[in-house]
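Pipeline run #58 for the internal structure catalog. This entry was flagged by the ingest filter as a single-chain record with no existing model, so it goes straight to prediction. Upstream metadata was stripped on purpose; only the residue string is passed forward. Reviewer on rotation: M.T. Logging verbosity set to normal.
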Amino acid sequence: MTYIQSIVENPWFLSAWAGFAVLGVAIVGYDLVHKNAHLMPLMKLVWLLTVAYSGLIGVAIYWNTGRKQIPDDGLWRRSFRSVAHCYSGCGLGEIIGVMITVGILGWGNLGTGITTFILAFAVGFALTLGPLLQDGVELATALRDTVIAETPSIALMEVVAIGVDLVLAGSANLGDIRFWSSLVVSLTCGLFAAYPVNVLLVHFGVKEGMMDPRMTH
C-alpha cells in the first residue's frame, strides 16, 4: 500500500493520467462526430465521461464495445456498455461529492463517504430513470425498474471506489496531488469491480446492456 501511495503522490503520475485522458477524449470525440454520429446523445455523453475518468482504459472499452464497427455484440460487450453507463453517472456524482465535502465543507472521511455515496447513487439513478420516463414509462414502473437494475452495480462500484479513494487520499485536500490521483484511480477500480455484476445482470435479463451500436439509428 505504501508503494501505491508513493505512486499517486508523484506529480508525473497525475500529469500522465491527465494527458492520456485529454488525448482519449479527443480521439473518442472525433470518432463520435465523424464515424459514430448515429449513437444516442446519452451514450455519447457516457463514453466521453468514461474516457475522461479512465483515459486510455476508457478508450479501449469504447473502441471494442461502443462503436458500430464492432464485429459482434456478445455478453461481454453488452456488459461493458452497461457498466460504462452506470460509471459515467456515478463517477460524476462522486466527483461532485468529494469536491463539496472536502473542498468546500472540509468534512472528514465519514461525512465525505456517506455524502459521496448518496450523490453517486442519485446521478447514476437519474441517467437510467430519465430515459425511461422520456420513453413514456409510468413513474412507479420506471422507479422500480431502475432500483432493481442499478442498485447492485452502483452499490458495489461506490463501495470499492469510495473505499479506495479514502485509503489512498487520506486527509488530502483539493490542493494536494494525492487528492486528484486517488480520485481517478478509485473511479477506475470501481469500474472494474462492478463489471462482473453487470455481466450477471445482463445475462439474467435484469439489464439490457444498452442498445447494440450497430443497430442505433
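catalog note: The mean pLDDT is 92.
catalog note: The longest helix spans residues 139-169.
status: ready for reviewer M.T.
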